[in-house]
Structure formats: C-alpha cells, structure tokens
Amino acid sequence: MTHPVISVEDLCVRFGSHDAVKGLSFAIAPRETLALVGESGSGKSATALSILRLIEREGGRIASGRILLRDGDAEIDLTALSDADLTTVRGNHISMVFQEPMTSLNPVLTIGDQVGEVFIRHRGMGARQALAAARDALDQVRIPEPARRLAQYPHELSGGLRQRVMIAMALACRPRLLIADEPSTALDVTTQAEILDLIRSLQEEIGMAILFITHDMGVVAEIADRVAVLRNGVKVEEAPVHALFAAPKAAYSRQLMAATPKLGSGTCAKPAGSGCVLEVKDLSTRFPLRSGLLKRVQAEIHAVSNVSFSLAEGETLGLVGESGCGKSTLARSVLRLIEPAAGTVRLAGQTLTGLSADRLRPARRHAQMIFQDPFASLNPRLPVHELVTEPARIHGLVTARDQRDLAVSLIEKVGLEADAIHRYPHQFSGGQRQRLCIARALSVKPKLIVADEAVSALDVSIARQVTDLMLDLQEQEGLAFLFISHDMAVVERLSHRIAVMYGGRIVEMGPSAEILANPRHSYTKRLLAAVPTPDPERRRQDRSPVALSAPVIVRPRGETVPELPLQEIVPGHFVRTEAA
C-alpha cells in the first residue's frame, strides 16, 4: 500500500475571529497532483501557508486539526513542530512556488546568490560548490545559458524565466511535496504551457507529490489527477479530475465550470460601428542601450516596429502574444505614455503624435487605460467618490457640487451599491476594485479604453462578471476597446478582431472567428496550440518545447531593416510574410 506524502485532517485556520478554513481534509500520494480550486477568499492560499507553517507570519493561526508528513515509516505532525524543526522540513521535504516571482526574488541579489543560498542552508555546501549546484539546478529547469544567468538579476529575466528560477529553488533539495500557488496565472499561454510541462516532467523524475492551487480550470484539466473545490473555507467537492469535469456534483463546482471561458465558444461582442476612433500608422518605439565609459547609446531595442491598425466605434481589438512581444509598449505608445520613435496616432480625429504636453492633456480625455492590478491603480488614501471622479475633475468636466452625484451614477453603472462611495479601496474585493477602475475610466466619457490584462489576475467567475460589464458598457456607450490579454478564450469572447504580436510586429490580424478557426502564421498556430483546454480528455500530448518568449530585436542605433509586408489572404485577414 502506498502511503500519502501529506495528510491534512480536519484543518481549521483562523484570522482573529474569522475562520478562513473550516474542517478541511485531504491527502496526496507520491507522484499525484491535487488541484485546490475556488475563488479568492475560499481558503486555498491559507491552506498552503498552513502546511508550511507560514500562516502565523500572515497573522493567522491553526486553530485545530493535524497536518501529517510521511517520513519513511513515521508520520510528522507539522502543527506540533518547533521553528527549528520546521526549518529542516521547509526546502528539504516541502517547497513552495508562489504566483509572482518578482516579489519572491530579492532584486538586489544575483540569481546565482539566491539559488546557491538554498544549497548552502539546506545542504551545507560551500560557496563555490553551491554556485556549481545552482548552475545545474537552472539547467534542470531548462533555462538556456544557465552559467550566464547566474550573474544576472531578477529584473533582467522574463516572467517565464523568473518563474523557472523559483521552481529551480523549490526543487533544489528534491522535496517530496511541491506546493504551487497560482504559478502560471500571470504568464502568457506558451510560457504557461512550458511551466506546466516542466512541473509534470520534474514530478515524474523526482516522484514528488504536488498541491496545485489555481482558479484556471483549463490548467486544472491539464495537470491535475484529483480536484478539491473550496468555497468560503469549506470543501464542497473532491473527485478525480475526469469525474469532476464530466459530472460535477456540487452547484458551486458547476458554477465554476460555467464561468470558465472556452476557446471555440464564439464571440459575444455586438457588431461594431462605422466611425473610426483610433488610427495607428507605422508606429515604432525603441529603447536605447547605453555602454562604455560615457554611457553613450550604442544600440536600440526595437520594442515596436512599424505597427498599423485601426479601431471603429463600438469595436474591440484583442491584442495577443507572449511576454516581451511589445503589447504593453504598443498600448502605452498609442496613448503617448511612452514616446514613440516614429509613426502617427490619430484619436477621435486628432493627431496625438507631435502634440505638446499642454495640447496632449485635453486630447487624452478621449482615451483611458485599465491596468492589470486595480489595487496599485487606486490611491489608497482617497474615498471612492473622489477616486472615480478624479479624471473628470482634472479635465474640468464636473464641479465640486456635482461630484458626489457623478460618483453615484458611475458606481451604479458598474454594478456597485450607491453607499460604496464612502468606502476606501482596501474595503473592496479584487473584482470590485476593477469595477472601480472601469468607473473611473468612464468619468470622462472616453471613446477608447485600453485594457491591459484587466482580468488576468481575477478568478474565473469574477472575470466573467467584469467582461460581461465591459460588453454591456460597450453596447450602451459605443466604447472602443483595445484589449490586451494572454487568455485566448477571453479575447475570443470580447473581440471583434484579433491582432497577434511577435517580436514587436503584428504578424497576423483579422476577424476573431477567422483567426481562431484558420490561423495562417506559424506563430499564431503555436500560440493557439499552447492554450489549455478545460477538458481532461483533451490534454495536450505533444510536450515539445515552444519559444520561451518573443525575440528581443536589438540593432545598432539608427539601423532599420526592410519590413516583410502584411498580405490580405481573404477579406480582412492579414498575415505577415514569413522569412524563408
């Protein structure tokens, strides 16, 4: 009989008087993956932190229950261990990979120092031996040029590579249990596919058990053996992954399934209008690379190269591509938050490129931006009635007397209660904060909203509510959206057209249904092949590696290369010619 690596028995976790986890029990066998799913506040992360006994550092405590770790023929109750004994367990027996590697890695230490520290602390190695072991650990997680990466800092790596570094650190001591807390949520689909394949292959090699925490049901279908569904700290259902997806028994499980966007379900966007809101022509953005004693510009990163597109009234253009392909740089260049090097941008009939700062400010009221992290976008010191009306005040569109009435109408428009105007951002959930950001954007009655990964960090049901809101507002207000996302199913649902970016260029663009059903560019095909399907019967079998990230184009200063043209292969469907 195979004994479980970890057994959680009747676990209760409490923050003050609030019970975050209530009577939770589960077990995970060697080489088995248990997915823990549920919305924010369901108790997923509290459970993970309790297993590692880090919950006390977050202000919580284990009120009751046992967490049993199998060590040979014995069982260790982690809830009864001292801090000194827990130091031995962490890393050696149990490791954890967190959602955002940039906040988990020390920005002032090199990758070699950080990975090497694991071997020094847990294996007792010397500095030189630890550095060699760190290089091997980076090689194990398929990081290219591992020796060179040892001297780099976290900010010099892409999101996918940073997450691989975190996995290398977590697996350095070959733990028997890996806790992966949303390790692929913020990654683009090809990088996510690489990370999931990497975790599975290393699991087979090491024989470890995995507790995989996620709200992405496509990822659950791709990686899990069993699934436990949590709601408000209570396990409402646990079943093998095939059984859960085929016939979920709990109403909440069915609700999660229904909220999960599925690629191929078609678009919900209403027909677009005819008036042109945004016209971008031959836009290029470059960043200087300085070197030498005098730090002169020797070369340039071509982040965006000769991009052209247009957006009609009431239309959504979905912008997709891997991390580093230039999506966010393009969006910021369109609004001149980053100064483009060449090209023109026309917004609501006015040319933005070339305008002075004084003349640009009033023109910007026609375009607003919604960012990925709503909490970082909102001033924590301002109440809601000031937050959501601030753009209107800046542009002189509302008087102090009418400010409160405008705030009420805005938050009601985005589905919040009128009495919420007196609250502060920290008193709202993530989904509610994103609604506040949308209300704030609407205060100046814009013609264009740029949404940069606006729902990627939200649970599936909350993301569904926010995208439904965006569709409703588009129909009511005639808004145009430039929607940037790595979730292809969400892009399909919202977008009339899709533009695929790679290496700073648009390589394919056309109607959503046409692009998804009949992709022509090799990169578009690879991007779609990497999308996880929320159906365990259709798990990807091909584990061949895909590109870690879109290429970074660096050229000597002032050098340009003739562009391969976009060709219209069918009406409205454009594909860039691929080099032989």
TrEMBL record:
Its main location: membrane. InterPro entries: AAA+_ATPase, ABC_transp_ATP-bind, ABC_transporter-like_ATP-bd, ABC_transporter-like_CS, Oligopep_ABC_C, P-loop_NTPase. It is an enzyme of class 7 (translocase). It is found in: Cell inner membrane. Its EC number is 7.4.2.10. Keywords: ATP-binding, Cell inner membrane, Cell membrane, Hydrolase, Membrane, Nucleotide-binding, Repeat, Translocase, Transport. GO terms for molecular function: ATP binding; ATP hydrolysis activity. SMART domains: AAA. One of its GO terms (biological process) is peptide transport. The keyword ATP-binding applies. GO terms for cellular component: plasma membrane. It catalyses: glutathione(out) + ATP + H2O = glutathione(in) + ADP + phosphate + H(+). Residues 6-257, 278-528 form the ABC transporter domain. It is a peripheral membrane protein. SUPFAM superfamilies: P-loop containing nucleoside triphosphate hydrolases. It comes from the Bacteria. Belongs to the ABC transporter superfamily. Glutathione importer (TC 3.A.1.5.11) family. Part of the ABC transporter complex GsiABCD involved in glutathione import. Responsible for energy coupling to the transport system. NCBIfam families: PRK10419.1, PRK11308.1. The complex is composed of two ATP-binding proteins (GsiA), two transmembrane proteins (GsiC and GsiD) and a solute-binding protein (GsiB). This is Glutathione import ATP-binding protein GsiA. It comes from Polymorphum gilvum (strain LMG 25793 / CGMCC 1.9160 / SL003B-26A1).
